[in-house]
Amino acid sequence: MLALLLTVMPLQADRFKDVQVQHTELAQDLYMLTGAGGNMATVIAGDKVLLVDSQYAELADKIKAKLSELGAKAGVTTLVNTHLHGDHVGGNSQLAGGVDIIAHHNVLSRLAQDSKFPRNGLPNITFKQQLKFTLGGQTIRLDYLPPSHTDGDIVVWFEQANVVHFGDLLFEGRFPFIDTNNGGSVKGYIDNTQTLLGMLNEQTKVIPGHGQLTDKAGVQRSLDMMQATLAIVQGYKAAGLTEQQAIEKGLGPQWQSWHWNFITEQRWIKTLYHADVN
Ligand SMILES: [Zn+2]
After folding, report:
1. What is the pLDDT of residues 140-161, one digit of tens each?
2. Would residue 6 count as lying in a domain?
3. How far is the CA of 92 from the centre of ligand 1 (A)?
4. What's the predicted TM-score (pTM) here?
5. Ligand 1 mean position to 83 CA, how many Å?
6. Residue 25's domain spans which residues?
7. Sheet harboring 30-34: ordered strands across?
8. 76 within a domain of the structure (yes/no)
C-alpha cells in the first residue's frame, strides 16, 4: 500500500505542473481565465475582485498570480460557483476561504455532505432563483435554471458587458456531461440550452464551462448536435435496438469531432439511450 502511494502521489502532483493560467480580456476589467478544469471569469476593480469558479486547489497560487498580474490589489473578495463539480469548486478554500462564496442552495446542500470538502470553502450565501449585485460598475446577475447538468447550475450574466458564463450548461464543441447522480437531466439540458439561446444576441460573448470562448452560433451548434443525436438514438430504440447495438451503430461521421476523452461517443449514446425524454 505504501509503495503504491509513493508511486502514485508524484504523478498526481505533476498533473498540474505544466498548467498555465491564461486570460482573455472580454470587456474593461472583465476577463475569462483558463487553466485546468472549468473555465473561470473574473472582474477586477481596485480592491474588489470577483471570481467565477475556482478550478483546483493545486492551481490556487497560479490563479492568484494571474489576478495580481491583472491588477488585483488583494485576494478574491467574492467567489461565485456555477455548480458543485470538483473542477469548479476545488480551489474554493484556498482562493476564497473567509470571504463571500455564492452558489445555488443545492450546491451547498450537496457539498456540505462531502466531509472531505473544506468547511471554509462552502458557499455562505445561497439563493434559489436569482441574485443580482454590482461590482466595479458591472451588474452581475446569477440565474438558476431547472435541473440539467446537475440540479444546482446557474449562469452568470455580466449585463453591461453583454458577456455570460454558462458554467457546464455548455461544453463547447464537445458532448456534454449530464450528471444524473447529482440531479441532472438530458431533457432539462436541452430545454435550458433553448431558453438561454433566446436570451443571447449576435454580440453576446459566451464563456462555456469547457472549451473555447464562443457566441450565440456556438450555443446553437450545441443545441443542434443534441437534438440530432437524440433523434438518432431514439430512432434506434424505436427500432428495438439494445443499448449495446445502439453503441455499435454509432452516431455516424457528422458528430465525431464532439467525442472527447471524458464524454466519448459511447458514453454520450448511453446517456441519450437512458434519457428522461418521452
Ligand atoms: Zn460540471
Report:
1. 999 999 999 999 999 999 999 9
2. yes
3. 15
4. 0.94
5. 7
6. 2-216
7. 22-27, 30-34, 40-45, 48-52, 78-80, 100-104, 125-127
8. yes
